[in-house]
Input
Amino acid sequence: MTDRPSRDSYHMSTDDFRRHGYEVIDWVADYLDTVTDQPIMPSIEPGAIREMIPTTAPEQPEPFGNILGDLDRVVMPGITHWQSPGWFAYFPANTSPPSILGELVAAGLGVQGMLWSTSPAATEVEEAVADWLVDLLGLPPGWKTTGPGGGVIQMSASDSTHTALVVARERARGSADDMVVYASEQAHSSIEKGARVAGYGHVRLIPVDDRYAMRPDAFEEAVEADIAAGLTPVAVVSAIGTTATTAVDPVRTIGEIARFHGLWHHVDAAYAGTAMVCEEFRHFQDGLELVDSYTFNPHKWMFTNFDCSLFYVADRAPLIESLSILPPYLRNEASASGQVIDYRDWHVPLGRRFRALKLWFVLRSYGAEGIRHHVREHVALARSLADRITAHPMLEPVAPVPFGLVSFRHVGGNDPTRSLAGAINASGWAYVTPSTIDDMAFIRVSIGQTNTTAVEVDRLWNLIEEELSEVAGST
Amino acid sequence: MTDRPSRDSYHMSTDDFRRHGYEVIDWVADYLDTVTDQPIMPSIEPGAIREMIPTTAPEQPEPFGNILGDLDRVVMPGITHWQSPGWFAYFPANTSPPSILGELVAAGLGVQGMLWSTSPAATEVEEAVADWLVDLLGLPPGWKTTGPGGGVIQMSASDSTHTALVVARERARGSADDMVVYASEQAHSSIEKGARVAGYGHVRLIPVDDRYAMRPDAFEEAVEADIAAGLTPVAVVSAIGTTATTAVDPVRTIGEIARFHGLWHHVDAAYAGTAMVCEEFRHFQDGLELVDSYTFNPHKWMFTNFDCSLFYVADRAPLIESLSILPPYLRNEASASGQVIDYRDWHVPLGRRFRALKLWFVLRSYGAEGIRHHVREHVALARSLADRITAHPMLEPVAPVPFGLVSFRHVGGNDPTRSLAGAINASGWAYVTPSTIDDMAFIRVSIGQTNTTAVEVDRLWNLIEEELSEVAGST
Output
């Protein structure tokens, strides 16, 4: 095949790692410095990136310089810039310098945190930061790992919600075919997906009120109708901050109904959970003591890069009972002693990396004060934008603005609303999500990217005003 | 509360990121250089790490120097050194310099790859490397994304297997309560866990032969008995390389039985899949054209840090049909055109980070030749150790050595076997997994850590020999 002598090792030496590591740090720093100038959405056709990649893997090792060069040549033309301060789409998926460095350390240590014994620090740092967040967010004290509950980092809110639905299903009696999960019509798609994946026979999407929050009377009626029909109501998911409009379901009332009928009550606060670092938002989570499980994502608004979804349970016993399988190769003294947490029993996957490290880095680098400062700044910017929208004769809000998301539309209806969204996105430097509720088109402006400030929000407003006056002038 | 003026921003500046980034690169490089000298297992009591962490998050930002200092002070005393070349426990969970740098870039870019449109390069690089691996491992060509099938990166083999079982369940008729999943008695715990999570009523663990491979006759009998009992056989999981002893199930025969009875056939090659880069191992995967889904983990033996589990399907239609939910905020032109892959429909979570980048970095940095070289070296080391064990009067192998795992015991039975494992692990620099099959204790020596060479294997053998002669001398 080849007459070259085989090398002893194909590993990059530590010296080369150090050198290339500096280069990559510089590359990332340059990216963060210049992302503002990039068109947020790449303008490429499907398949364009693949065309630049050879169809087979290289047979011989390539110099690292080639690989780094291909980042610019092949990858960057196909990157959507979630880290641009002009990112107003979806919800933010923030990263930040301390988070990036925490991820780097975790990749370097390369430990598996599946059991306490497979790297005690991975488990104990995770316990510690999960417990920190109970206090920081004003969650029920019993949710600490030092109490009957506890928190664990999962990949995404979809995983956390799916886990909750599995535990609820295991706790209930009977066949999953007859079991029902409830959530509002405005609940995130992950609830319907999680219920389907967990094998539930039925998902009921409950009507909402004029603020897009679940109607508890309609929820209770649905439960009673299902019971009368011989079905088994098993779980309800409340949202604190829906995806479409950040509506807040009445957690306490839903919790009371859930308790009365013996349903598992899971709360999806994936985005808005971060806001609870500020006491002034905590009235939105009133009733958490009537909740069985809860999820929020530091990887959205807490400057911690994906993946980092916190999942809390009020009582860890049914969770562990549902998910624990103990083969011989995983047995060890520490686990048998019952003195430690083995996080593999807290989610579907067995393996897990040291994700707590980046969250620990972020919470310490920002301090509680820093997180609060930036959350308040984002919410204030959202409210000021909402005020300008309300005052504008051609625009109207479609929902309240409890957090950092502004949902609005053109008073002229769906077509001008969609045109306006298209015009904003065509600007290149700003990106919003066009969405619909029922058949009403609207525009979601999510203000929460790590580096978004008044500069970008003012610029967005100017763009909107210009666009509206141009359209008005041209008709 | 405080009379200090609030800061404008609590973000670490890019200049500081650059400076601290170099420090962290140096920290990781120093770690990789010195990990050989660390005792692999930390000697700490449960709770010792937590005691060093304050019970509440800091109110004020902390300087990065404090955080980095606490890595050494707080974290390192609780780290189990999976990256030590003396790591012979479990299976490897390797990292490597190019992988660490790929993870760093992914954290810096911070893109969400849930849809093609949310970062086309994240999807297309993943398609490309998944397709590369089809050729590299000799998998069926139809498993490429350019064919009817396709590959996707999931977090772990547990997730991949769970996904396969969900798709199989959705494809089948009837109630999950009556559905049966089959795997061998030696199958990984993730199969039983995945089946439980997916709501299957029954898991049958099929007896194995004297090489710990599934007995296809026993599998077929079980299927027929279940059908006769009114149950619904739905899925079977074959292992190419079981966890206990890397036994290889007869994939072709199991596949024929599965086809005949209409079962979904999933293959768990989490560890051994990597070996298939070398043609001489591919006879172990004979029959893959009779397989519906397959998983292997580059984060085990392919020098790519966790998480990176490849999941392939022969036909992506039932996968996407089972997992697709399309809310308004996720609709977009590219998805509607059907021209692109939206990977959110290929697994339970919605969000996903750019994990393909590190795998791309690894495959290019090592080249196919480099991966083959190191796999062959590890397997050769395992065989040479197995030969020495076979030749030693006080030791005996308990299973064949098809890959890099050597399973053996002391001829004197369970007590001396456990003592020997304890003595090896007490050395500090080497770590093996004590395990059992039925009631037979044995020692697993997994040779595959990124930097393991003949030096460590010889040192391990000397340690074993010394220990045996000491024990012999003292009795």
About this structure: Chain A has a mean pLDDT of 95. Chain A has 15 helices and twelve strands. The longest helix of chain A spans residues 356-391.
